[in-house]
Amino acid sequence: MFSHIFVGVADFDRAMAFYRPVMATLGIAQRFVDPSRPWAGWQSSPDPRPLFLIGRPFEGEHAPGNGPMTAFAASSRAQVDAVHAAALAHGGHCDGPPGLRPEYHANYYGAYFRDPDGNKLCVAFHGAVDA
After folding, report:
1. Residue 44: exposed, middle, or buried by beta-carbon count in 10 A (0-12, 13-18, 19+)?
2. How do 120-125 and 69-73 pair as beta strands?
3. pLDDT of residue 131 exceeding 70
4. Residue 117: which residues within 8 A CB-CB, separation 6 or more?
5. Which residue, 109, 125, 129, 122, is CA-closest to 22?
6. How confident is the model at residue 69, as a pLDDT?
7. Is 28 exposed, middle or buried (0-12, 13-18, 19+ CB in 10 A)?
8. Domain residue ranges in the chain
9. What is the pLDDT of residue 102?
10. Mean pLDDT score of the chain, rounded to an integer?
11. Which segments within the chain are labelled E, that is strand?
């Protein structure tokens, strides 16, 4: 459904220090990084898309919103917990601790956090039990 998701960041080095461990904990490989532009991308597997990209906004301004949110799929509840912990350990801010959210569906286990620029992110597991 998606080709890519791009999240604008104000401080590229700070963003990389946050996203590298978060994406590694999710098991998502970095596809490229170009500090001169600056931007970086992580690639889905086994397909080359969708991509998750970060970088300086093309318009040159950064204004994270409260409405937009990017949600990553986790392979287990334990991975949700680990990604949330990695995010907080690398400059992120908790926007909702890991836990069941039955208002979405009976098995929804998710966590919410913001990156150092204030972009809202989620990691969620939808299975009945850990894989």
Report:
1. middle
2. parallel
3. no
4. 8, 9, 10, 11, 14, 15, 62, 64
5. 122
6. 86
7. middle
8. 4-57+68-125
9. 93
10. 90
11. 4-8, 29-34, 39-43, 51-55, 69-73, 93-100, 109-114, 120-125
Query: What pairing do the DSSP bridges indicate for beta strands 29-34 and 120-125?
Result: unpaired
Strand order, beta sheet including 109-114: 69-73, 120-125, 109-114, 93-100
CB 55 within 8 A of CB 84: no
Which position has the token pair 């890519």?
A: 4
Class of domain 4-57+68-125: alpha beta
Please give the model's pTM, rounded to 2 decimal places. 0.84
What length is written for the chain? 131
Q: Mean pLDDT, to the nearest integer, of 102-111?
A: 93
> pLDDT per residue over 7-29, tens digit each?
989 899 999 999 999 999 999 99
Helix axes 12-26, 77-89, angle to 10 degrees: 160
Instruction: Specify the 3-state DSSP secondary structure of 9.
Output: coil
